[in-house]
Write a structure and sequence with these properties.
Helix 3 links the parallel strand 1 and strand 2. The chain has 385 residues and is mainly α. It has a 4-stranded mixed sheet with strand order 2-1-3-4, with helices on both faces. The protein has 15 helices and 4 strands.
Amino acid sequence: MFKDFISTIKREINIISKDRNIFTVIILVPVIYALMYGSLYWNKGEDKLAVAVVDMDRTEFSSGFIKALNNHQLINVITITGDLSEAKLKMDRMDVMGIIYIPVDAGKLLESKKSITITSYLNTTRLLVSNDINKAVNDVAAYYVNDKRNIYLKSTGYNSKEAATLVEPVKADVRAMFNKMETYGDYLIPGILALILHQTLLLGLSENIARERQNNLISEYKSISGNNSVIALLGKTAFYFLTYFAYSILFFTLAFSIFKINLAGSLVLLLVITSLLILSAIFLSILISSFFKRKFIAIIVMAFTSYPLFFISGYVFPSYALPVPLQYFAKAFTISPFLKAYIRLTQLGAGFGNIQGEIIHICIITVVLFVLVLLRLKYLFYKSD
């Protein structure tokens, strides 16, 4: 039995080494993708976003407000004009991503203790950019509001401490538990690394299984494994499991370090749940691709299904906001509970007790897939006779 197991592994390594498509997807693509996609978010966040200011006030207040905007780390005021149409033309050409409009007599109204409205025109074709500009404008406006309120309260007889308390009677103490710098890279890179592991494994192995049927090699596969479906399955998957386990160690140590991604929890526990994900992905890939007799069809089907699984997993879009049927559909695949446990473990420092439910969920799906794959292999071996 052990000899059959080793023979099956050797056969699998021989197949991978000789098939350039499978070799590329399994050996080269995971590392290349990790470096390529991760490097896109090397700076993680954006700063000094180009904006235009339409200053219709031309007073000391507007000059100070513009200076404060330009000093904000997210804003770079590249144009100051008195013509709104000129600023809009610049935004249409994408020369600026936003326009800040300061109305006429804003300084006089503020001095007379009347409200003013500073308008932001945002190019929302890039959502993160528009949010950052809006945040910067609100930060500067809030500073001016609090400063003017403080001055007014002092003029009515309150001392500095009393005025400060009245300006902000309730102070919010906001402490980010994950993604403390609120950058896109810190949020996206961990998910991308998990997606690369999951998708490339599905694609590479599905191509391998479909190849067996396309080239009528099921009988050979059966013979080498000693007509034992368990040995056939373990021998077929051993190389893939060890390879992707090695990738997991590489991603969670070297890649996390290169891209400065936080790993707050236990690396050992992270590797355990990733091992379960790898096993379930292996079984899922074998099960689905075993129904196809052409490599091309199998890899197309897997490519068009693996991305949607990531999108409905709850990582990109919250699960509770999905249609109810999609919520239940997503729970049938291990990528959904894995990503929930993965983020809490890596970014929030969760322990086993915090992700126990997700681990049980993954184990149940993995066992079910294992049984289904064994039954499917037994059937294919029977048909090959």
